[in-house]
Protein: Proline--tRNA ligase
Organism: Hyphomonas johnsonii MHS-2
Amino acid sequence: MRLSRYFLPVTKDAPADAAIASHKLMLRTGMVRQNGAGIYSWLPMGFRVLKKIEQIVREEMDRAGAVEMLMPTLQQADLWRESGRYEAYGKEMLRIQDRHERDMLYGPTNEELVTDVFRSYVKSYKQLPLVLYHQQWKFRDEVRPRFGVMRGREFLMKDAYSFDLTEEDARVSYRKMFCAYLNAFGRMGLTAVPMRADTGPIGGDMSHEFIILADTGESAVFCDKALLDMPAPGLDLDFDGDLTAEVEKRTQYYAATEEMHDADAFAALPADRQVSARGIEVGHIFNFGTKYSVPMNAVVQTTDGQMVPVQMGSYGIGVSRLVGGIIEACHDENGIVWPESVAPWQVGLINMRVGDAACDAVCERIYQALQAAGREVLYDDTDERAGGKFARMDLIGLPWQTTVGPRGVADGKVEVKNRKTGEKHEVSIEDMLNQLDAQK
Amino acid sequence: MRLSRYFLPVTKDAPADAAIASHKLMLRTGMVRQNGAGIYSWLPMGFRVLKKIEQIVREEMDRAGAVEMLMPTLQQADLWRESGRYEAYGKEMLRIQDRHERDMLYGPTNEELVTDVFRSYVKSYKQLPLVLYHQQWKFRDEVRPRFGVMRGREFLMKDAYSFDLTEEDARVSYRKMFCAYLNAFGRMGLTAVPMRADTGPIGGDMSHEFIILADTGESAVFCDKALLDMPAPGLDLDFDGDLTAEVEKRTQYYAATEEMHDADAFAALPADRQVSARGIEVGHIFNFGTKYSVPMNAVVQTTDGQMVPVQMGSYGIGVSRLVGGIIEACHDENGIVWPESVAPWQVGLINMRVGDAACDAVCERIYQALQAAGREVLYDDTDERAGGKFARMDLIGLPWQTTVGPRGVADGKVEVKNRKTGEKHEVSIEDMLNQLDAQK
């Protein structure tokens, strides 16, 4: 992408009401613009990151055998009356009447709707297990939306729903999602710690939150340091195999949010393993059995002909919140430091002297070669001063910067900088082009 | 995808209230499920097609230089009061109050919101031209939603907005979108005819609808047959060049919707070129100058330091409607006949005798080889009868069917069928695998 043709409205200062690093940086880099309390437009660069995260979540859900669909944003109130949650949900639910005065709502979550889809089609144990998921905008009418996309009102959530014949099968589905979550967050460069959690308004008897540690986290969390050092299960995990050991490898260690915290159990840990920190919830999974299938009569036939309510679970990831969460975990005093997997582009190409025939020609060759080799490149071909270009490129945090200036070009060289480490080295232009050519 | 692990709820009959072919077929093939009047869940196969169309639209917008972003579904009423459309829009606008009794609405279109984004950042002619677009769910509270996704209330629209310094520049942007639309529809296997159109509530002095012909179309259309025989401009079109000729090549011919119809001009055409038909609107583009920029004070500085209101246009494509539109144009008595570019999978692989070791092994090899060669495959590995499998595969309309049965396997052969032509031929298994291997 040529910056001269792009829309990247970087600003010098963040508004005073942006309290945390991610919110400030997302406003300064022109990733989002607020359109109302807790409601944001995703400007082009922000949109690219959001799509990257969405795609990683998709790939890890698919790998775990979940099937993607898309439910609408607006739902009928009557479905929520069936489950009993219409009145119970309170003011966070945005209630709407259409022109015929039918009661509707903007979905804050989808247990009722997906249960309705399920009961319309699935009648037999033969069609199980089934995990359906979607990535759709949700609305929760928070009293005080804050921290930018971290606690917005309109937000993008991935929510998956599992359907199983037996309680034990439901636990198998739960473990698949548990592992898929660790892999998804791992691919985003995050260490997410599964913590025993309260089930809240979703209900159920088993629940874990996935928490990333950050000083600006909204809640206090407590865990064993061993969990922070443990890598994700890995993309070669066999999701058809028994994942019990993979889950218990983690749940054996202490980890809990404030509301589930057991101070005595935590104090019993060796002192050097006691991690007491702030955390951001990026995922939450629930096993709630027949909480919805019983009132909504979602039943399936068993092998011996009985009709039984289906066992369910639900599994959420805060896709838009993750954009903020990743920035909280990945920034320094100069700006964002994107992990490669979610960076809007992998490479920033800086032309220090646009209009200089030699610089322009080298940039053009490198730009084409990078793209031909499958790299995503933002080419700063604007006629601004070099100093401003460097600062902006650091601010938006692409993992690699390639700088082309007149002196280097005269020597056949360009400079490559690693944004994270700050390391710079000179590279021969011909070597770089040859290497890229070999990667086509 | 293995069908045994997928969710494809095909049904024998369509509900009686489904009046047109696409609605019937989308319900029978389990592509969508209605969740309320004009509100649908996109079940997994429907979702795949929707994503294919969205991606084609994205690629053609990007090729024409437009930049993708994402605006929220909910908007503040105050923005619409600025433009004067809040009261004017009528009952099709879904009006909402949040918990603080602030007036909001579910966006039926985004001229106001994008103009607000624009005026917040862009101050100079140097930042122009600019075309921003997004693909987001919209809501229009139709009195009588009907024809399935063709006239739903919650629907997915791609809407682009152009910003230019002068009227002539705005026409340049208009022509780019005009050509990009023809390319996008062409890639979907559709012949879309641009027709002079009324500008309606969007306003402006220049507008074209893009219409595909179908017997079930909602409006009468009239055009010169020459337009139906004209291919799209082509993906190698130079969008930086002058596109006037490319546009006029089409606008020189008569084409108009009912409301713009000039019976005398139409009658003057040679009889064999008079096409009078029904049509489905799949796109609509508008050049409306300063209709929004003046009341909303979206001004930019000119080269000589003056501040002038920016020239705008908007460009819509009915992404979810297109799923129905394509089926209207592409089906036969046995079901859907997908164009390859939007098919949910390119190949359907039928195992006639699941459990037969030889059939299973051949299917598995072909399934793996097809995927390794980059083909999307739906593998019917269910234990149903062959007759039902054939009928279902015809119904869902994948372009190619590969059938593996015990007799063929004994001869080292499988059958390949073209869904559109019905042509079948036997292919040697080894030849097929070798060919696929070469395409890796």
In short: Chain B touches chain A through 52 residues (CB under 8 Å). The first strand of chain B starts at residue 32 and ends at 36. The CA atoms of residues 203 and 303 of chain B lie 28 Å apart. Residues 345-438 of chain B form a domain with the Rossmann fold fold (CATH 3.40.50.800).
